[in-house]
């Protein structure tokens, strides 16, 4: 599996507090079946003043520590980017990092304040050649009232990323129900750990992947944690990797095979 959203870098934000914690998180990820993790610390003006250069240097240092500890986890990086006035120019000037240097970047909406011009922001980034990956919208305090706006954002071309723990009820039943709704509506592109620690927000995905499979089937669950994240790393056109709603004609539940989807991965990378 590939985890495209994780706060594993030590001492850089509210994720791993130190190197021993970060190394244990990496061990957890490997044991869970994750082969590649994107280190995505917050860029949040006034709170986490991380920079592209600083994140890259932190990843390079952490790679050396992983090698010394013989932990076989590959790393790449991006950032969990809050709304900033210079968002588009920051991406264009490489001040704000995208995921693995691709057209995709993590975009974190405010947790408690609705964005009045979300559609305009999505439009401007897409027009500039970037694909915003909206992180954990299911956890926003206002998501019930704004849910149609996030569906519209996905229709515009934004990607939706759910937190694995949300599907497991780790943020409460309300968040779990919204996460399940995003899956059923066929607008979820990625499942990521958003791992922060070794207790309640671990960098693991296998259990959440199984929970997603119970809703959208094994094929789509695999795409959430393997094929679609690989498409981001390869910087592929987002039109080739649209999610599948659970209520789509021909959808089959977990444990079944869907012949219409056979060969999807080879077509994606052809």
TrEMBL record:
Enzyme category, top tier: hydrolase
UniProt record similarity statement: Belongs to the metallo-dependent hydrolases superfamily. CpsB/CapC family.
Gene3D superfamilies: Metal-dependent hydrolases
NAD keyword on record: no
A GO molecular-function descriptor: manganese ion binding
Keyword Hydrolase tagged: yes
Protein name as it appears in the record: protein-tyrosine-phosphatase
Domain of life: Bacteria
Catalytic activity: O-phospho-L-tyrosyl-[protein] + H2O = L-tyrosyl-[protein] + phosphate
EC numbers: 3.1.3.48
Alphabetical UniProt keywords: Hydrolase
PANTHER family per UniProt: TYROSINE-PROTEIN PHOSPHATASE YWQE
